Amino acid sequence: MIEVLKPYPAYKDSGVEWLGQVPEHWEVRRLKTAVDHINEQTSTKSDEDLYIALEHVESWTGRLLVSSGEAQFDSQVKRFRVGDVLFGKLRPYLAKVVRPKQSGVCVGEFFVLRARPVVAPHYLEVVLRSAPAIDFVNNSTYGAKMPRADWTFVGAMLFPLPPLPEQTAIVRFLDYVDRRIRRVMRARQRRIKLLEEYKQALIHRAVTGQIDVRTGEPYPAYKDSGVEWLGQVPAHWEVVPLKRLAWFKSGAGFPVHHQGDMNAEIPFFKVSDMNIPGNEKYLRICPNTVSMTVARSLGATVFPAGTIIFPKVGGALLTNKRRIAESHCCIDNNMMGCVARNGDRDFLFLIMSCIDLGTIAKLGPVPAISEGEVREIRVALPSAPEQTAIVEYLDAQTTKIDAAIATARREIELLREYRTRLIADVVTGKVDVREVAAQLPEKSPKEGEWTDMEETVGGEAVDNGAAAETFSEEEVER
To answer: 293-321: b or e for each residue (b if 16 or more CB lie within 10 Å)?
Structure first.
């Protein structure tokens, strides 16, 4: 249906760079002639009021991430009512545009805009959240510390205004497309989650000896490891503490004035660097470096290439992320390094990937684990030839899984890009959606909604509790 979209029959010059040519029958008005800028400040809220801060709104979608009934604020907030559009005014948050379905209060970093009769609130929300509008406003922001948009500029911006029935058609079409795009994206996200669970299950089965990777069958004889997370292990495997295989050392704290240097010789990694694209397994990309002189003066350990690095404190510890340093490096004091000294480094990495440090972390508001505690964790140790076989088997299998995950992530990114471009084309009048919108089915009450227990993957319902091991090799390659 989307493929049949065509341009409007006639266009005119809007006189606005971000709009370009618009349909001949559309109006182009200043935003302030179509909306009222509401600045009703208050320092109180009722129990029924919704409270919205910038962090509660998802950029580019307008979905509320938090619906806060209880809230503490130490400055005045703004009142809004149902149908008002909230538009983030700080440069990093311009795409936080939301139309709440409940009255309440919001932080002062939002513009509160109330549609006049010439514009439908939903249409106003969609246009303000479109990439061309956001880019236009972004270019006007000012201020050194936290650039922001000014209402004088935003209110004066020229705004596309089709007839009200056409605004309704545009909103109807974009809602329809958005529901279907989100459905596909959720399916891809669910597939990524299942593939990651399947990958972790494969690693766990091989590293704990539940299967002999050389035969594809269980080992002939098992014994009790005496370790809960290991369970039964092959009878000929050893059960040893990690200190037999590696030494462990925490990172060091570096004063801020020693950070941010890109010219020193030693990469300095922080927990956040684990999330940089390209650092999924090997730590390669690093925004900070330090000199050997600084490292020595602070008593910081310079870890060798091949060190296994992981978070040791806070919420990051619970993510159980493991990375391998591609070169010698320093790490911050929220991380720990593991350096192999006996056995295969890659096998040790697999062992470390299977250990849930959250289960042995110190209890308290901030979970943490010490070097001594990690050293004493007992693991299963096969012979050197078996270690090599396990590494080679898992390398082959996880490469396929990682490729499938990368494909799904790329599909999600392409869907986001497509949605952004389509919205821009529709709200600026580059395509005519009136005929298509008139043919769309009515939205059912549950259409586009998802439960926590069931999502769609490849057209089939998948229970979130389903065993990840049910993936076959052919399914991974698909």
So the answer is: ebbeeeebbbbeebbbbbbbbeebbeebb
If asked whether residues 315 and 443 sit together in one domain, one would say no
In this prediction, residue 180 carries a pLDDT of: 94
Q: In this predicted structure, what is the pLDDT of residue 474?
A: 54
In terms of Cα–Cα distance, which of 398, 283, 395, 301 is closest to 344?
Answer: 395
Instruction: Supply the pLDDT for residue 470.
Output: 46
Domain assignment present for 48:
yes
Mean pLDDT of the chain: 88
- Residue that has been written with the tokens 């549609």 in this structure: 115
pLDDT at 458: 32
pLDDT value at position 44?
Answer: 83
Same-domain check for residues 49 and 174: no
- Between CA 269 and CA 325 the distance in angstroms is 9
In this structure, are residues 250 and 335 in contact, taking their beta carbons and an 8 Å threshold?
yes
Low-confidence ranges of the chain (pLDDT < 50): 445, 447-470
Same domain, 242 and 307: yes
Domain end point (choices 347, 381, 415) = 381
Q: Is residue 97 within 8 Å of residue 124, measured between CB atoms?
A: no
CA of residue 463 relative to chain centroid, distance:
22
The string of pLDDT tens digits covering residues 378-399 is 999 999 999 999 999 999 999 9
Domain that holds residue 70: 27-161
Listed residues 161, 180, 214: the one ending a domain = 161
Let me know if 244 is exposed, middle or buried by CB neighbors in 10 A (0-12, 13-18, 19+). Answer: middle
Is there a domain that residue 225 lies in?
Answer: no
> How high is the pLDDT of residue 183?
96
pLDDT value at position 260? Answer: 65
Residues 120 and 173 in one domain: no
Number of domains, the chain: 3
Coil/strand/helix, residue 434: helix
Alpha-carbon gap, residue 216 to 122, rounded angstroms? 57
Sign, CA dihedral 355-288-366-298, equals: positive
